[in-house]
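Support reply, case 0932

Customer input (verbatim):
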Amino acid sequence: MARTRLAALAAAATATVALTALTGCGAADMTRQASPYADAKGSRTVTLSVQSWVGAQANVAVAQYLLEHELGYRVDTVQIDEVPAWDALSQGRVDAILEDWGHPEQEKRYVDDKETIKPGGELGVTGHIGWFVPTYFAEQHPDVTDWKNLNKYANDFRTAESGGKGQLMDGSPSYVTNDKALVKNLGLDYQVVFAGSEAAQITQIKQFAKEKKPFLSYWYKPQWLFEKVPMTEVKLPEHQEGCDADTEKVACAYPHTPLRKFLNARFADGGGDAAAFLKKFRWTTEMQNDVSLMIAEEKLAPQEAAARWVKENEATWRTWLPS
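Our regenerated output:
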């Protein structure tokens, strides 16, 4: 998903290139491959996967700051898309993913079958993907919040990119999304248009809001943008267990997902204080949004935002440190 890039150290940048080569072309299974900078025995180095959305970057920024300043570790970060990040974690090329929005196929393969990844506990934040319209439009047209009425407003949401249909704006194609199937299976006169990234999508949403134009967008909670552009969710058919099992036949809403952490299995068992800390790392939606706003709106560097948050929330983070 569905989400200000942290600068990777030189070794981590090299890893990203290697990962692209390995995961992008069907390379042989390398789930037991050693890494020179992650999962190194006796080292005080931790490598964290950073997803592209700002909430995930906030998690990593705070974890990195505390690992370095309180526990004496060096932290490397690598930005990888959601699914390849699971491959990297299994291979030991990264030690932890701090925000996963649900990847059952990868979880079955690596946690259940190969046992190369272990759950690291819940992050404390519940994620939810949905379709949203600006609240100023919903107040003028209250029935737009029921999906059954969306075709009525297709012309209002039409753009130059949507081919004569209403536009449903998505972010990156790499995010968790059922939107193309939902549009087809619900018989909606809409075209899914990808902005390309969370940052590009935010730019478009802000521009629409500035001009008070209507828009329909894939979006997710928690996300700091709701504080700047109030949005109202469109009610899709109720989510039931298993209704999204077949990605071609999905015709239901996205679930509410407790976001979870995952650790490389060898790191989980032998990562010492770092592994113990990451397992205990757990904060609230409000806390994550506080750091996200500093990064995205105040334009602080992630480590500056983390330092400010850490200074103001000692009672919280002290509970994460190994006893």
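We compared this against your earlier run and they match. Two observations from our side: The two ends are 34 Å apart (CA to CA). The chain has twelve helices and nine strands. Please reopen the case if you see a mismatch on your end.
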